[in-house]
Amino acid sequence: MTKKELFEEIKNNLIEMEEEVVEELCKKSLEMGIPAKETIQEGLIAGMEVVGQLYEEEEYFLPEVLICSDAMNIGIDVLKPYLEGDLSSDKIRAVIGVVEGDTHDIGKNLVKIMLEAGGIEVHDLGRDVALDEFVNKAKEVDAHFIIMSTLMTTTMEGMKIVIEKLKAEGMRDSVKVAIGGGPISQRFATEIGADLYTKDANEAVRKIKEIHEAA
Amino acid sequence: MTLMEYINKEERGYLLPFMGANGPIMTGKTMEEIYASPELQLETAKYMEKKFSSDFIYALDEGNLFCDALGVTLKKPEYDFSMVMDHPIKNMEDLEKLEIPNPYTNERMKTNLKSLNLISENIDKPLFVSLQGPFTLAVQLAGATELLKATIKNPIFVEKLLEFTGEVVDRYAKAIVEAGVKMISIAEPSTVMLAPKKFPDMVINNLNKIFKDLKCWKCVHICGDTSKIYPYILETPVDAFSFDQIMDMEKIIENFPEDKVVIGNLDPVYLLGRGSVQEVAYKTAELHHKMKKYNNYLMGFGCSCANTAPTENLEAVSKWGRATYEEIRVFLEND
What we know:
The complex is a heterodimer of chains A (215) and B (335).
Chain A: H1 3-15, H2 19-31, H3 36-56, H4 62-79, E1 93-98, H5 106-117, E2 121-124, H6 131-141, E3 145-149, H7 157-168, E4 176-180, H8 186-192, E5 196-197, H9 201-214
Parallel strand pairs in A: 1-2, 1-3, 3-4, 4-5
Helix pairs in contact in A: 1-2, 1-3, 2-4, 3-4, 4-5, 5-9, 6-7
Chain B: H1 3-6, E1 15-16, H2 22-27, H3 31-36, H4 38-51, E2 57-58, H5 65-69, E3 74-75, E4 83-84, H6 92-97, H7 107-122, E5 127-132, H8 134-142, H9 144-153, H10 155-178, E6 183-187, H11 199-212, E7 217-221, H12 230-233, E8 240-242, H13 249-254, E9 261-266, H14 277-291, E10 297-301, H15 311-321, H16 325-334
Parallel strand pairs in B: 1-10, 2-5, 5-6, 6-7, 7-8, 8-9, 9-10
Antiparallel strand pairs in B: 3-4
Helix pairs in contact in B: 4-7, 7-10, 8-9, 8-10, 9-10, 10-11, 14-15, 14-16
């Protein structure tokens, strides 16, 4: 099997949700002496990009995306110990979480999956996250983005407070804010001064990359 | 009397408000205090009815009642709905340990039944209750991510879990109807995560079972864009479907069966929570004016009212949500 064929196999098996096969193929890539970073990029991430397209086209829904993401993470776990050098310095770094008062995290998890598949370094604070924690974590990891989600009308205002806290800390210019979730809209994002609102996870990845490149 | 007959009794708009924690905030009584006391429930319902009269009595939302009764860990803010903090049902073994709560012996449910009975006997308007639906309850028990993955990897577990949650909702729904509830809305917000083709197995089967022998007015509410979903719901013996604020009511109702009621969809955040009194009055009157030609329209909120909605806004929606069509016409002409 050539390197190209192997990447194609990894990609296809990831799309088909064959976690064990993906794991075996990633091990095989190491035996063949292929750099781990290349396998991640050309096999796993390439596969997740197709999964993202299938999701946008409504061929795949959340269950399929979640299982494909598991397959990707299994592959990454195999390859991670063999990654050479510090790959994180040139990556986009994002802090993500569901705002305080809300525990609905499926949307946040989906965005996280797509961001990671898009090569973005994600620091996941989980759900029901204290508002200060977003700012503190962003400071700690020198994040480029804070991404907040909520499904509840009652907790939306927390997003505005985080933006105010960023201003108070003098971090607003260096940290962009992206928001999403059921009751969130572009109008709300504009009102509270967020930099980005998107309806779906794939769009979030594309726009975050665009904003980062433009900055 | 059917729901359709009820909302056409008089030549005016009819209003069904979906309240949040507004009652507890306004009365200064915490959610848990109210849940625990049938007398306080009645007092709160009377207060809300006096302050923001509508065409239904809206008892304090049941929230995560089923999870509470099943012993799931909840975070309970004093003046907001509780949140599920853990998803304890990971597999069949966990599920087998769960027992369907008996509404007549489970302490929390038993108290609710007393409260609902007290309200229905003391306030002469149809008593409305919103309940978490079986799929959404399953998501709360198993966690959204795990449940969704299980729909592909472990469908038998999902099937059994949905059988269980369906039975939980079914038993309680029947008990509250006996207690005097006139209208039940099953809230299934988590179903928006499903592919529409999964609806028959994962949602419709349970709703059919629950609605089949339920002797009350039956409604389903799902948040978000439900344009591809609601036709499935209409296959069940449901009386009404309640729409989110993002949906276009006029477009919906044009293609809606005339024998089923369309409920919606004043914006609970931008209008009721953040709008001015004038905006609330105008938008409420305007929506009724647009919909008055349809006999199967009932005004409601797109989702639960923002807890911080100003009293004056709720008063305005109460006034114009129930105004006669003539009053509305004059108001809009002079505005």
